[in-house]
Design goal:
Structural class: alpha/beta
Strand order of the largest sheet: 3-2-1-4-5-6-11
Shape: globular
Distance between the termini: 34 Å
Strand content: 15-25%
Number of strands: 14
CATH topology of the largest domain: Rossmann fold
Order of helices and strands: EHEEHEHHEHEEHEEEHEEHEEHH
CATH architecture of the largest domain: 3-Layer(aba) Sandwich
Length: 327
């Protein structure tokens, strides 16, 4: 008998790709999303439009659905914005999550996979970044995710609600068939912004600083294909059902690509040149950050399949060139 999963934020970038993979794995899937960041067109599964801050509506969804587990994406996720509107981030990312946990508790749903972030580590001292690296967020966004990880540990201790927190690095790419992809407003991620420059939707692209302690002077980041992240979420919920044990994992490729490498690959794939200028450093950007993914490989039996830079860029280019205005 197939298990039923509620995916909060399932109409968003990460959520919609995970919904697709869950369905391919034979799960029954329902989506709960307020569509502030998500897109109705990105999901074909049953969708309830609602906000996690609407406590009664959340509980109503659980009463109607018979869920075996939850995958929780619904959160605001812009570090810069979180420093301008901290209340918005603390309220949504923590209170919304608490309402979800209370609905789970009241309806005896014992398993949750949480979409966390490497932002909980702040500026890590050690590379690659392991799960036991010191947690020192430098944004309200990172702090809100870390606080909710702690909330989950208390709900495990008190109510036996088992959880897996997945701390991922830079999600990138799109479905290989070009059916769903990344559509944010505003867009802040390097790959879609640079692709917009290649499509002529922007005048050019700005690299923020070229004097970092990296091989070519630009920031190095760990980019992981959205399909590999989606696969990790399905493996995490499987792990909870089989082992009934809470845990946490870093999700990344284990190496990084520089901003210059990303730009050059986009120009190669798109077969288009565009203006690139060097701007001032952004405050708080570390030289390099990439994950130690050995724990996820060993425990979850998870291995990134699509996270080479060329595959990431090809899939992103396919989506954006087919959908220049998004969904």
């Amino acid at each position: 008998m197939k298990k039923n999963i509620l995916v909060t934020g399932g109409a968003g970038y990460m959520g919609s790709h995970t919904v697709k993979v869950l369905e391919e794995e034979g799960y029954g899937v329902s989506v709960y999303d307020n569509l502030i960041c998500g897109h109705r067109e990105s999901v074909k599964t049953p969708l309830t439009v609602g906000d996690l801050l609407e406590k009664e509506k959340v509980e109503e969804v659980f009463k109607k659905g018979k869920f075996d587990g939850v995958i929780h994406f619904a959160a605001y996720a812009l570090a810069g914005e979180s420093m301008e509107t901290p209340y918005k981030y603390f309220e949504n990312n923590i209170m919304g999550g608490l309402n979800l946990l209370e609905a789970m508790r009241k309806n005896n749903v014992k398993y949750i996979v949480f979409s966390s972030t490497c932002a909980i580590y702040g500026y890590p001292e050690n590379l690659p970044v392991g799960e036991e690296e010191e947690k020192n967020p430098v944004s309200v966004y990172g702090e809100s995710k870390l606080v909710f990880e702690k909330v989950l540990s208390w709900y495990d201790a008190i109510y036996n609600i088992k959880n897996v927190s997945l701390r991922y690095f830079n999600a990138a790419g799109a479905s290989l068939d070009g059916s769903i992809g990344e559509d944010h407003d505003p867009e802040t991620h390097i790959i879609p912004v640079a692709i917009e420059a290649a499509l002529g939707k922007r005048d050019g692209f700005t690299i923020f600083g070229d004097d970092y302690d990296t091989p070519d002077g630009t920031n190095v980041r760990d980019y992981i294909h959205v399909l590999d992240l989606a696969s990790a979420h399905t493996k995490a919920i499987d792990y909870l059902f089989e082992n009934k044990k809470s845990d946490y994992f870093n999700l990344g490729v284990g190496k990084g690509y520089s901003n210059r490498q990303v730009i050059e690959m986009i120009k190669k794939i798109a077969k288009k040149d565009f203006r690139v200028e060097i701007g001032k450093r952004r405050e708080g950007d570390p030289d390099a950050i990439y994950a130690d993914n050995q724990k996820a490989k060993k425990v979850l039996k998870w291995t990134p399949e699509y996270s080479d830079l060329e595959t990431i860029i090809k899939s992103a280019w396919k989506w954006h060139s087919k959908n220049p205005e998004g969904f």
